[in-house]
Amino acid sequence: MADMSHGICFLVGAGPGDPLLLTLKARECIQRADVLIYDYLCNPEILKWARKDVEKIYAGKKAGAHTLKQDEINDLIVQKTRAGKTVTRLKGGDPFLFGRGGEEAEALVQAGCRFEVVPGVTSAIGGPAYAGIPVTHRAHNTMLTIFTGHEDPTKSETSLDYKAIASAPGTKVMLMGIERLSIISQGMMKAGMDASTPVALVRWATTGRQQTLTGTVGDIATKAEAAAFKAPAVAVFGDVVALRDKLNWFESKPLFGKRIAVTRTRQQAGDLVQRLRELGADAFEMPTIRIEPAPNKREFYETVAYSHGYEWIIFTSPNGVDAFFGVFYELYKDARSLGAARIAAIGPATAERVRSYRFAVDVQPEKYVAEEILKALQKETSLENVKVLLARAEGARDVLPVELEKLGAIVDETIAYRTVPETEDASGGIERYRAEGADMVTFTSSSTAENFHALGLPAHEGVRFASIGPVTSKTMQSLKMPVDVEAPVHDIPGLVASILQFYGKP
Fold first, then answer.
1. Cβ distance 38 to 58 under 8 Å?
2. Protein fold of 297-418
3. Marked catalytic residue, from 48, 61, 367, 505
4. Whether residue 230 lies in the annotated active site
5. Is 39 designated active site?
6. Annotated catalytic residue within 39, 94, 282, 439
7. What is the reported pLDDT for 1?
8. May I ask the CATH architecture of the domain 8-121?
9. Which CATH code fits 125-247?
């Protein structure tokens, strides 16, 4: 019987690749974990949901390269669980479908450790689904056979019963074993499988990196070798493969096949990445900046405390809004403590963030640049002797305060936050860019461009650069970076629309 005073180990299915295919329970386990032990096929982006103090241990295994042997992984999860830790063991797909989760569960039971199993979406079903292939269809089959092409290398003979697999009616799905595809397909044909049986290979399924190769049992191995088609991949054998021609929903998205690196803060990259992924892009986060609190905390708190003494408060970014109201609600419990101050915001995202704190936006210019807010304010009121508070980032352009003062305003500028270079690469985006490059890199502020440039990353051939607006473009040009795309509407939807237009998509 398990010792209830010890920790607990969650054996968690991390799904086939798309982070949105994780279950709610899986995400909860990641958030609770003291220790995260994860595999090669786990999307590293899901690690960002973990606590900052979590212990992360990579235990990846792929063909010919094992970080830890299975016995060592078993010992590790037992050791950490016995130490009273909450251990989340992340395994690609489902832990009990050829994931050796059963072996790890047995090791935990033998050691007297508590454990729970969190099933995941298996690539045996999710992978073909994203390639437009339903593994079951009543017009084609009434059975589904799932087998692994990867066998224990210590065995002298194969344990695959080719005759049983070949003679079983319906669809067959093979997990792993792509490197043995020639041997396996020949074994299938010798056991009686028709050489004309349709086959599909799906690589990096459910992600923007997905690739699908189709053929027959007779020629798929030759095609895979010619295309240098490597693991990780699933193989589907059967008539359902033909349905891909009309059900291929994922690979027909407008940005499918485009690799786009998003340079924002880790917290803010998600919205742009998700919008691009919804359009089929292989979008990945490459955080170049991090948001930090105001360097002079006391001064900022004192300014916010006196904010009711201003006639106008101007916000130039959502980060400034969050910083300001975070402190405001520490100091005051009643929104009316802001007094009669009116609020101006540059850009719809900034305005929306203000409204999320239950405050109205009195002025919002049509164009999302600092110069335009001057015109908008002048239409609203005379600025002569008007007290204005400008809450923004350290090192921001001085155009706005200078021009406000020229118009007679009494301007106080408070530094609400600062951007600093990101020093961590939790999701592996920077290393991925170094190794693979990208079709496009996006920049949503001058600081993202400056810090991307400071990283000294290689200039991959053919890469394009996209800017959210003229201020960012000017910074990019000063850094000798080309501006291939500039959003005429200077927000995230505008940038996405411009990228679609650049690639000739509606």
1. yes
2. Rossmann fold (3.40.50)
3. 61
4. no
5. yes
6. 39
7. 40
8. 3-Layer(aba) Sandwich (3.40)
9. 3.30.950.10
